[in-house]
Design goal:
Elements lengths: L3 E9 L1 E12 L5 E11 L2 E6 L2 E2 L6 E5 L6 E9 L7 E7 L2 E7 L2 E9 H12 L6 H28 L5 E4 L2 E4 L11 E2 L16 H9 L3 E5 L2 E2 L4 E2 L41 H9 L11 H7 L12 E7 H12 L6 E9 L5 E8 L2 E6 L1 H7 L10 E5 L2 E2 L2 E2 L1 E7 L7 E2 H9 L4 H8 L4 E4 L2
Parallel strand pairs: 1-13, 12-20, 16-25
Antiparallel strand pairs: 1-10, 2-3, 2-6, 2-7, 3-4, 4-5, 6-9, 7-8, 9-10, 11-12, 14-15, 14-26, 17-24, 18-19, 19-20, 21-24, 22-23
């Protein structure tokens, strides 16, 4: 039997919702429908349906009387948190609504069956008009990732915690994965998997992709794979341990996103010379495409606001770099003299970056910390070279970052997989390409 999952949707002092159909308040047994509000006021919950207050404690559990005919709306849900396309929108969900208190805020959680969740994820992560084989591949990896996270969370509880940073004099190494979600399984944003309920309407093709792979997961030596994915690997995928905790997963390793190594390139991008040639070049790969037909299948409207993803550049003034480091890393290194790669992964993504300033030097990592430190939102990836601008008394006026790829680059490359799907590859071919050594198993 498929499991139910808990998805964190909204984090706010105030949750405004509408119950479309009859919902039962589990604490009191009373049934409600219509508009409602939950407000946290000095640690006290004020809960009302319509204009009538309802006596309720935490958690507030509202369960649909008829799952097939009920839904609820949440107002002003933030999507794309901290990314360049962050915005608010109203969203609609099937299943139950749970409201809890976390860190002085209310958290609205959607409780629903896993397979129903997947229909929305596939439509939220990419266009519902993608090729059938890509949708099937994505259904398998999204299901695998979620079940692997549930298993991982159980292991972490037994171990009593999860280390996500290593800090010492002159060095800050952080990674971001499971540390934020202790009271639900996954969040609804890019930190986990995009999930926007039935706001992103699934199509018959999406539903067929989920149904035809129901209960199917990727496995490696009998264990469900922690199947990761990003928008664009930039030509070579990255190892898991170079992005998150130092644990090697053999199926999350270097994959050249091409049937053959591109001629004229050294694909060992952990070396600085090879990385620079690769990043400033234009090697053939599945994800090196400008096909509007393919991209419109993969990218939702807000993703299509990003045009350059395979190769990109960003210009930062000296003041912008200094201000970003103060805001994002809470350091004042004075004028920045150099952004120097210390360690790169197999895809050319930086694991550690040395920032040299007139007041000191700091090494930061891993890839997401580097992306956060040098952008108001996030750099597209940490696979970049930093070219200094004109210098006066040894101080550059700014830096041009020339980069490759969009996202962490681990596991499936969504744009590359879209090209494969449109080119006649099966979903099994796609999965075996991006997750070498894995097998398909049906778990329920």
């Amino acid at each position: 039997m498929q499991p139910k999952i808990n998805v964190g949707i909204l984090f706010s002092p105030r949750v405004v919702f509408n119950l479309n159909g009859r919902y039962r308040h589990l604490e009191s047994g009373i049934e409600f429908e219509g508009p409602g509000t939950a407000v946290l006021d000095n640690g006290k919950l004020n809960f009302s349906i319509g204009n009538s207050p309802v006596s309720a404690g935490f958690p507030v559990d509202l369960e649909p009387v008829d799952c097939s005919d009920c839904s609820f709306d949440l107002r002003e849900v933030t999507i794309g948190i901290n990314f360049h396309w962050e915005r608010k929108e109203d969203q609609r969900f099937r299943g139950g609504l749970r409201i809890i208190e976390e860190n002085g805020l209310l958290t609205a959680i959607n409780v629903l069956p896993l397979e129903e969740y997947l229909v929305s994820v596939i439509s939220s992560e990419m266009s519902a008009t993608s090729s059938a084989e890509l949708l099937k591949a994505h259904a398998v990896i999204s299901r695998s990732w979620l079940l692997a996270q549930k298993e991982k969370e159980a292991r972490l509880k037994d171990k009593g915690g999860y280390v996500t940073s290593i800090e010492k004099d002159g060095e800050i190494i952080r990674w971001y994965d499971r540390e934020d979600h202790k009271n639900f399984d996954v969040c609804a944003d890019d930190h986990c998997q995009r999930y926007q309920g039935i706001t992103r309407a699934g199509t018959p093709t999406v539903e067929e992709a989920v149904n035809s792979t129901s209960g199917m997961v990727l496995a490696y030596e009998g264990k469900i794979c922690d199947a990761r994915y990003s928008k664009c690997c930039g030509g070579i995928s990255e190892k898991f341990e170079n992005v998150w905790e130092p644990v090697a997963h053999p199926y999350l390793t270097k994959v050249v996103d091409n049937p053959d190594d591109p001629p004229g390139y050294d694909t060992d991008l952990s070396g600085e010379e090879a990385a620079q040639i690769w990043i400033t070049g234009n090697p053939d790969s599945f994800c090196n495409t400008r096909s509007t037909y393919v991209l419109s299948q993969v990218l939702n409207d807000y993703d299509q606001e990003t045009v350059n993803f395979y190769r990109w550049s960003v210009n930062l003034t000296q003041k912008e770099v200094k201000d970003l480091l103060k805001e994002k890393v809470n350091v004042d290194l004075g004028d920045i003299i150099e952004l120097e790669p210390v360690e790169r992964g197999v895809s050319g993504r930086m694991i550690r970056l040395r920032i040299k300033g007139t007041k000191g030097t700091l090494v930061i990592g891993k890839e997401l910390e580097i992306r956060r430190a040098l952008s108001p939102s996030h750099l597209y990836s940490s696979a970049f070279i930093a070219e200094p601008g004109d210098t006066v008394n040894g101080i550059p006026a700014g830096f041009t970052l020339r980069g490759a790829g969009w996202g962490h680059g681990v596991g499936l490359c969504q744009i590359g997989a879209a090209v494969m799907g449109s080119g006649g590859y099966s979903y099994q071919d796609i999965l075996s390409h991006y997750f070498p050594g894995s097998t398909l198993e049906t778990r329920y």
